[in-house]
Amino acid sequence: MQMEDIVVNSKVKKLIGSNMDIDFSNADFGNSKCPWNTADKTNGHMCAVKDISICKYFCGIQYLDSVLCSYPYENVSILKRDEMDRDIIDRIV
Ligand code: SF4
After folding, report:
1. Of all protein residues, whose CA lies closest to atom 6 belonging to ligand 1?
2. Closest among 12, 30, 16 to 89, alpha carbons compared
3. What is the pLDDT of residues 27-75, one digit of tens each?
């Protein structure tokens, strides 16, 4: 199914369904740590895994490269409908 691009303004379009791979596994690259990994003493939780899943605490990206993370509150419990581009899909884990 082809998704419709959303026009944000005369210069920017929102392109839906990017194939993201995002994590905080490299502390030398990023400045933050995943709070779920810290709580579980692991490096296994990832914000988005390409082709596979999106973390249940992932609330999106803010430019430049900041993750909006709602841990320990699941994103569906705090995001409003108009903050999402579409209904939650089954890739949320
Ligand atoms: S969204 Fe938050 S809890 Fe989930 S993997 Fe990313 S930093 Fe960790």
Report:
1. 47
2. 16
3. 888 789 999 999 999 999 999 999 999 999 999 999 999 999 999 999 9
Assessment of whether the complete model's pTM goes beyond 0.85: yes
Ligand 1 pocket, CB under 6 A:
24, 34-36, 45-47, 55, 57-58, 67, 69, 71
Residue whose CB lies within 8 A of the most ligand 1 atoms, among 26, 40, 71, for a mutation test? 71
Q: What is the C-alpha separation between 29 and 82, in angstroms, rounded?
A: 32
**Token pair belonging to 88:** 């939650």
Pocket test for ligand 1, best of 33, 65, 67 (most atoms within 8 A of CB): 67
Task: Enumerate the β-bridge partners of residue 54.
Answer: 48, 92
What contacts 11, CB < 8 A, 6 or more positions away?
none
Sign of the C-alpha dihedral computed for residues 76, 35, 32 and 42 taken in this order = negative
